Amino acid sequence: MKIVCIGGGPGGLYFAISMKRRDPAHDITVIDHHPLGSTYGWGVVYWDDLLDILYRNDPDSAHAVRTRSVLWQEQAIHLRDSDTAYFGGYGFSMGRAALLEVLSRRASDLGVDVQHGREVLDLSDFGDVDLIVAADGANSRVRQRDSHRFGTSVTLGENRYIWLGTDKVFTRFTFAFEHTSAGWIWFHAYPSVAETISTCIVECQPRTWCGLGFDSQDNRGNLRVLEEIFARPLDGHSLISSTRGEFARWNRFPEVTNTSWYHDNVVLLGDAAHTTHFTIGSGTRLAIVDAVVLAQVLYEHAEIADALDDYDAQRRAALRPIQACARTSMAWFEHADRYLDRSAVQFAYAMAARHGMQMPWQYQQHLLTQVPPVRKVRRAIDSAHRWWRAARRGERAMAPPSPLRPPAPIRSDPPIR
Length: 417
Ligand SMILES: Cc1cc2nc3c(=O)[nH]c(=O)nc-3n(C[C@H](O)[C@H](O)[C@H](O)COP(=O)(O)OP(=O)(O)OC[C@H]3O[C@@H](n4cnc5c(N)ncnc54)[C@H](O)[C@@H]3O)c2cc1C
What we know:
Elements: E1 2-6, H1 10-22, E2 27-32, E3 43-46, H2 48-57, H3 59-67, E4 70-79, E5 83-95, H4 96-109, E6 113-116, E7 131-134, H5 141-145, H6 147-150, E8 152-156, E9 160-166, E10 173-180, E11 183-193, E12 197-204, H7 206-211, H8 219-229, E13 239-240, E14 242-243, E15 246-247, E16 254-258, E17 262-263, E18 266-268, H9 283-300, H10 304-334, H11 344-352, H12 360-369, H13 372-392
Parallel strand pairs: 1-2, 1-7, 2-6, 4-10, 7-18
Antiparallel strand pairs: 3-5, 4-5, 8-16, 9-12, 9-13, 10-11, 11-12, 14-15, 17-18
Helix pairs in contact: 1-4, 1-9, 2-3, 3-4, 9-10
């Protein structure tokens, strides 16, 4: 099959890898308009369930992803830096640039023609291909061109956010909420590159954003103000704005939905098809699951049209509850100030409960998590659990990759930050 994939983000690259793993004879080109190693954003978090999928689908790239990822344990929620609450648990994180480098190298090794630095402006060059995969991100040009056929809807979130890095090394997933003269502002931070760089996503309501002058200041001015506001939780470390030579910009999160994920031989994948607010930390994982499922249905069906129909039915149904959950999470953060008169422990519990009713025992568990020896025991249990999951998926003893191993059905419920 001759395939062109527009967009060499995690979704596009992982689709190419998954196709080649199922049939090395496919002729696949991935085109991305940025040079290799240059991407927007900083790190992304993920959990064991993504590693399970990666190891099942392609152990080689899974091993490289795991090796370059950082483990973080627990979540800390600081209010005004004077009051802190904790959640238990652990996750992993990895810089986007490193992730794309790993996937790009693996795709090339499998025989995919990965072309960087080429922007696709229209589809007229691809008249002779069997399948066009639009994995060109949330602002997909391919999708916009035919938005009426995909039934696209894009809704912007109210809050403003900016995706930054910092040289402060966080070992926990950390939230810091600070009160300013213009209102509350907070960051979500986690490690990205081991012991070097952390990701720091700053978010606030529109009136705070205007009140602090972020609508009129230049980028350097923005960073200076943010470093002053977060001086205590950042321990005086710097914020880093520039990736690929461009300054990060303030954004409003676009929630993208489509009533159909394909038309003719053009299919949407990853953020081009759907976005989920960053407060549930799932977009990369979902793009990768799309990629695996699309490769699998193309492997199972003789006709491309049947495969696309199956993919559309499976993935749109799977995304519906996840996007609803992401919407609720985004809305909760848009009204976070309603809960910020509480203590950190009460506020953190409200944050944990934003996805729905909690059982009474969960509140007791939350209170227990605030006790340091209890957290220590939880960390030990988590380590044992992590070891068991790693052994079960084959992470401990790297087996030689099998040429064909269609993945088992994939769970669609993402863990929530
Ligand atoms: C602030 C923030 C934090 C996030 N944190 C997390 C997280 O912790 N965990 C997580 O799982 N997800 C996270 N995400 C979501 C995640 O970044 C995306 O869901 C994921 O990158 C989607 O992958 P993709 O391959 O579909 O698209 P992208 O990664 O956006 O890749 C699209 C690619 O297409 C290329 N492209 C675009 N147009 C063209 C064109 N015309 N021609 C050629 N190439 C083109 C672009 O250069 C880009 O490389 C976060 C998102 C944001 C905004």
